[in-house]
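Entry 14. Structure prediction run on the chain below.
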Amino acid sequence: MVINAVAVSVDRQVSIREALRRIDEKGAGILLLVRTDGTFERTVTDGDIRRLLLAGATLDDRLDRLAQIQSLVLNAPQLPVSELRVALNGGKTTGVFQNREDLCFRGNSSSKFNAVNSLVKFYGHNGKNTTDTTVKAKVNGCGPGVTGSISGAQGSRPSVRLSANKHPDAPNFKELRVSLSKNLSLVESKFDAGVSGSGSASFEYVDSHTLRVYGLPSAGVDKFTVRLGKGAVRVSERSRDLLDRGRTRKFSAKAKQTPVSGSATSTRGEFSAKGKKH
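Output returned:
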């Protein structure tokens, strides 16, 4: 991915509000502060802006409040930067990201998040360039990490535990909707007594395969665990029959999170039970 330096370049007359907007919009994680003649002065990160605000600046103040520092770019001239090149590492087989899930999770995991790193290199107009610098990239739009487990799957009162953890770059979530696979179903008459969670929340039976978690703190939460037991969940007859033959059965649950800001995202996680012959 090549980013034209113009798109991430600002001068000291730009407001703090506009600088934050550009950092969020461009997704490079930094801005390039340039002088009136177009030469590079320094980088500006959200951390630099946060320190300005903590020091008493307002969003309408300009970047001229930033300290004037002498930046040294090795092996490159003090000339206008022609482009900022970012190379993303990753991809399961080809070295190139194939889809968004590769950016969010490691391999085929639905719970282990992927760390996305990029290499930043500055190219000067005279052909000289800097060495590579590794920058952690922010990934938007990732669903929660989902894990699950089941015990007593061959009995009449199995227990299911499902956990959802927000992606490190995602906002907290204020609501969670959990959809169970076809071989798991909720028992409405026992739902209220058999459902519980890892924190203060309310639970709603939606249908035989779906429940809703709501009433979470207004600031949202970064993780939540749902527990189903006491007859509130049951395994299908087909799966119980196969478990009784000593087979292994897979189950799954999709967790759809509603964040405190932005759009809802979801992830499906799988878990299994190994049967014992009767």
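The first strand starts at residue 2 and ends at 4.
Filed with the rest of this week's runs.
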